From TrEMBL:
Transmembrane segments: none annotated. Keywords: DNA-binding, Transcription, Transcription regulation. This is AraC family transcriptional regulator. The lineage of its organism: Bacteria, Pseudomonadati, Bacteroidota, Flavobacteriia, Flavobacteriales. It comes from the Bacteria. Pfam families: HTH_18.
Length: 303
């Protein structure tokens, strides 16, 4: 897999204009202009840059990680360094919108370094892109216009600070719009929880639990063809519980059934549920139920 260490190398590979700044590139198309077209296809690649782009009309599938995304109007896509990107000639870029690329070192030493880590959407798969309303598009584009103006000006000691401030504002709005998207997709969120539990049930019934242990959240997300971060964020916003908490609740529910079987010791119950250490199982159970597994068995078993 090809990896690009510098922004210039990455843009050259993409067949896009050389950046005016060694660590920052801003491409913006107004109503009367178009963005330059990137290369028509690419094998899997990675780089050390962040990308924030708005693609208004794109046709075809873009592979991003393990998923494909069918683009629609107003899709805001945020990519982080070292994420895998791939596409072929079936993708048609209708070059309206914008694309901002900046090397991760560009924001070193600024508050944005820590802030950007809090934005889960940089870890989302492309099929979880943010879909903007026309009003939201205009707001985002107005911020990008400010960035573009500063980018093309004769840069001075204030330029970087101003650009980073505008980037920070752009990402804060993106975060707000993602929150809105989650709110308006409650039906999908509920369905996702059902699918999450269905995957756990299938895993348990397959007998893999005893052989492979408790499934990771990443494994479950892969089965659902979504990113781990998107799964976690969606369930957290809809139910108030994290994916780990939902997994633990499922395990505890299973544990209750097994605990009422008198022929199983607490350690055996723990091992049956994929816990490597019975003590950890007991701690999780007590945290969720307010009593130890043995106390639960004593209280509820049939006499």
């Amino acid at each position: 897999m090809q990896h690009f260490k510098t922004l210039a190398e990455y843009l050259e590979y993409m067949e896009l204009p050389r950046p005016e700044h060694p660590m920052l590139s801003v491409l913006f198309a107004d109503e009367e202009s178009f963005l330059p077209c990137p290369r028509k296809s690419s094998a899997p690649i990675t780089n050390e840059c962040y990308t924030i782009s708005l693609k208004k009309i794109v046709k075809g599938d873009l592979n991003y990680g393990r998923t494909k995304y069918d683009f629609t109007n107003g899709a805001l896509i945020c990519l982080a360094p070292r994420q895998v990107l791939q596409w072929d000639s079936s993708v048609v870029f209708e070059q309206k919108g914008f694309s901002i690329n900046f090397h991760e070192d560009f924001i070193k030493g600024t508050e944005l370094v820590q802030q950007i880590k809090k934005y889960g959407f940089f870890s989302y798969s492309v099929n979880e892109a943010l879909h903007l309303s026309p009003k939201e598009e205009k707001l985002i584009e107005s911020i990008v216009e400010n960035i573009e103006t500063e980018y093309h000006n004769n840069q001075d000691e204030f330029s970087k600070e101003i650009i980073i401030s505008q980037l920070n504002t752009l990402l804060k709005y993106a975060n707000r719009f993602y929150e809105r998207q989650f709110i308006h997709r409650k039906e999908l969120s509920n369905n996702l929880l059902e699918q999450f539990n269905d995957q756990l049930t299938a895993y348990f019934e397959s007998g893999r639990l005893q052989e492979e242990g408790i499934p990771s959240i990443e494994q479950i997300a892969q089965k659902l063809s979504i990113s781990q971060r998107y799964l976690s964020d969606t369930l957290k916003k809809e139910t108030g519980k994290t994916t780990t908490e939902h997994l633990q609740l499922y395990l505890i529910d299973e544990a209750k059934n097994i605990l009422l079987k008198p022929n199983k010791s607490i350690s055996e119950v723990a091992y049956d549920l994929g816990f490597e250490y019975p003590q950890y199982f007991s701690r999780v159970f007590k945290k969720k139920e307010g009593m130890s597994p043995s106390a639960y068995r004593e209280k509820y078993r049939m006499n």
